[in-house]
Design brief:
The chain is an alpha/beta fold. The chain has helices at 11-20, 26-38, 45-55, 70-78, 92-104, 119-124, 146-153, 182-195; strands at residues 60-64, 84-88, 112-115, 134-139, 157-166, 200-205, 211-216.
């Protein structure tokens, strides 16, 4: 068993893994190109590939935070062809653009439903589209609201569902006790709470900006 940190994967290994992966689709590449100059937050490509793998066999997915629909598309490409996604975001300008890229990728409109509202408002309103049960939930929106998103999602999860959250290491700030801005403090508390929560079997993957993956015990 490797018990020390004399070797950790770096750029060489990440490039090698990327070289083994299937070519990036035109639609995913288009979202990356559009997001960069506008500084639109999207998951990094490595995290996207993990999302696609986790979505395999997951037919009902809910996503909190759409932006340009990059993570949405990775999830849609990974899930079965009859799978559906409900994604929540208050910015219709962004999600309208996202719809165009989903269509470019060949994803039928009926597979992805956009709820145009702040997520906590949508959950509180009892939107029927958010009733569940969902077998995968992805969280990537306002960091101080992560814990509230999770609590709103729990009664909407199927037994054995996965909950995935992005940005949970926050570019190293979460692990640095000297950093205590609102987002960092919220993420630090969220990470600790989920990993100690008996409702879940959870861990953090050091991929991209950190992915928390939690299996719901039901």
């Amino acid at each position: 068993m490797k018990g020390d940190r004399s070797w950790l994967p770096g750029a060489t290994e990440l490039d090698w893994i990327e070289g083994l992966a299937p070519p990036l689709s035109d639609a995913l590449a288009a979202i990356e190109a559009a997001a960069a100059p506008e500084r639109i937050p999207i998951v990094d490509r490595d995290s996207g590939r993990v999302l696609a793998a986790l979505a395999a066999g997951r037919r009902r997915i809910v996503e909190v935070g759409t932006a340009y629909g990059y993570s949405t598309l990775w999830l849609a490409l990974g899930q079965p062809a009859d799978g559906t996604i409900v994604t929540i975001d208050p910015d219709a300008t962004r999600t309208d653009l996202a719809r165009g890229w989903w269509r470019q990728a060949g994803i039928a409109d009926e597979r992805i439903l956009v709820v145009t509202a702040p997520a906590l408002d949508a959950f509180a309103a009892g939107d029927k589209a958010l009733a569940g049960p969902f077998d995968l939930a992805f969280i990537d929106a306002l960091k101080p609201e992560y814990t509230a998103y999770l609590e709103a999602l729990v009664p909407r999860l199927a037994p054995g569902a996965l909950v995935v959250a992005d940005n949970v290491v926050w570019s190293g700030r979460v692990a640095n006790p000297k950093v205590n801005d609102e987002n960092t403090v919220a993420l630090r508390a969220f990470d600790a709470a989920v990993l100690a929560d008996p409702r879940f079997s959870a861990t953090i993957l050091p991929v991209g900006d950190g992915l928390l993956v939690a299996g719901y015990r039901g």
